Request: fold
Amino acid sequence: MQPILSCSDLDAGYQKRPVVRGLNLDAAPGEIVALLGANGAGKTTSLLTMAGLLPPVRGAVMVAGKAVNHNRPYLAARSGLALVPDDKCLFTTLSVAQNISFGRRGKAALSEALSYFPALEQRVRLPAGVLSGGEQQMLALARALVAGPRVMLIDELSMGLAPVIVRDILEVVRRIADEKGTAVVLVEQHVEMALRFADRAVVLAHGDVVLEESANVLRENPERLRQGYFGRTA
Reply:
C-alpha cells in the first residue's frame, strides 16, 4: 500500500540548525508508526516539522504526494494533517462540545466524537478545564478526529496519565486507524504500550534513525530496542 505520509531525507531543527538528520519515515493508511527515543532525541521536533509548524532544514514532508507548506500551517491541516500536541492545546474555558466544534461543527461531529469517546458524553457542557487528565486527552483526540484527518500526529499521549487510561485511549487510536484508514505517527515514552498497538517503530537517538522494525519484533526483542535507545543496533 502506498504511504499517505512520507518524510524524505528530512533534516529538522531550529534556525536552520538540524537536531534530526536524514529522517525517512512513511505511514500508510490505517498504519500506526511509533516514533520512539529518549528525551531530546528529536521526536517532537520531527512531529512539528511534519505538521508544517517548523520549516524543514532539508528534505520534504509529503501528504498524498503533495509537499506540506510550512509557511502556511493551516494548509497542512487542509491537506489532511492533524497534530495532537503534548500540551493538548484545549480552550479550557469553553465546553467540551465547543472544543470539538473547532474540529468540525454540527451534531454529526459531536455524535462521531462521542462514539469513539463515550466517557465525554456526560461532560459535553462542562468547561474543558475541569476535566481529568485522561478526559482532556480524549477531548484533544476527539477534536482532531472530527476534522477527518488522513494523518494524525500524536505527541506524548500518556503524559501524566495512569497506564490503564493510556491503554484505553490507545485502543481507541487503534480503532480509528483500523476503521477510518487514518495513518498515525505516535510519539510515546510508554514504549511497551506503544509497541502493543503500533504496526512499526522508528527509533531516534541523538537525532539519527538507529532502528526501524516491526512493533511485534521489537516487543519480542527488548534488548535490541534498548540498544537502539543508546544509539546502537543489535
Notes: The chain has a mean pLDDT of 93.
